[in-house]
Amino acid sequence: MQQQEIHNILERYFTANESTILENCSGYLHVQLSVDLDKLLMNRPFYWHYLEKTGGTPNPMQMSLITNPNQCSEEKKGEQIHFGSPRLHQILQSLKQLGTYIRLYEHIPKDDTFQSSALHPWLCINTKISYQCDRKKDMIISLGLNLITGEIIHEFHNMLLRKTVTPKIPDFCFTLSPLITPKSGLLRLENVIRSLIAEDDHQWAEDAYNRWQQDLRLLETFYEETEEKPESYHLEIEALKDQYEPKINVHIINGGLFYLKNK
Fold first, then answer.
1. Cα separation values, 149 from 53, 120, 154, 256, 262, Å
2. pLDDT tens for residues 155-208?
3. What integer is the mean pLDDT of 112-127?
4. Where are the domains of the chain?
5. Cα(177)–Cα(222) distance, integer angstroms
6. CB distance 168 to 261 below 8 Å
7. How far is CA 19 from CA 16, 38, 118, in A?
8. Cβ contacts of residue 81 below 8 Å, gap of 6+?
9. Helices and strands in the chain: count of H runs, count of E runs
10. Which of 88-102, 106-120, 178-192 has the highest mean pLDDT?
11. What angle do CA 196, 258, 26 make, to 5 degrees?
């Protein structure tokens, strides 16, 4: 992971979690943390516990991060962050809590006419499909469903990367009410994933089954003269099943609602 990639990830991370970026220049980020991110990142449980008991005014901390010392001017002070650093690891781990579901709006620049723009609701899920036997193959599938028209877009995440999104609805924009409920939308996307799996080539499963049977025959030769099979025999039978039995696991990594201009 390159330093510029880390900088871009952090920029999107803080913006998506409503933390104001006070300064953003080459190799440097200075951020006013939101209450949620302060609780998550700054390790101040006693402070927040006291504040909640007394009803005081929250005062979340600020954070300064240097993502590239070679580009950052010497007067900038902050915590150096790079791939493998504890702070970056902490932030990436927090995405498992914060990034499971998100709601974002496409940023629409203001124009002189002050015309309002309608934003269409899209349901997106990013899914990992794992083909597993004694070998493993993972695929990442990103699907987006228009909750008004029913249109489905593959590689939806890549399309989103070309857009500018914000956690707050832009000025002079309004959202259209979905005709398809998110629950129904998830079922539609689940059917798409099932179809993708069904249409795929599953020679890998047949090959795994053949290797399984070959090892079973080899195991039988070791015990063919034993009338009463010992416990070790049954354990090895189960171990071969765990190793070779073809499985398909589907795991939703994250998802969200995205309100986008219809194009």
1. 48, 9, 15, 18, 11
2. 998 898 888 888 888 888 899 999 999 999 999 999 999 999 999 999 999 999
3. 84
4. 1-99, 101-202+246-263, 203-245
5. 67
6. no
7. 8, 10, 26
8. 6, 10, 65, 66, 67, 87, 88
9. 8, 11
10. 178-192
11. 105
- For the stretch 223-261, pLDDT in tens is 888 888 889 989 999 999 999 999 999 988 888 999 999
Render 88-152 in DSSP notation, one character per residue. Answer: HHHHHHHHHHHSSEEEEEE-----TT---EEEEEEEEEEEEEEEESSSEEEEEEEEEEETTT--E
Q: Which tokens sit at 191?
A: 């059917």
At 146, give phi and psi (nearest 5°). -75, 115
- Written as six digits, the tokens of 30 are 């200075």
Quote the CA–CA distance of 2 and 213 in Å, as a whole number. Answer: 46
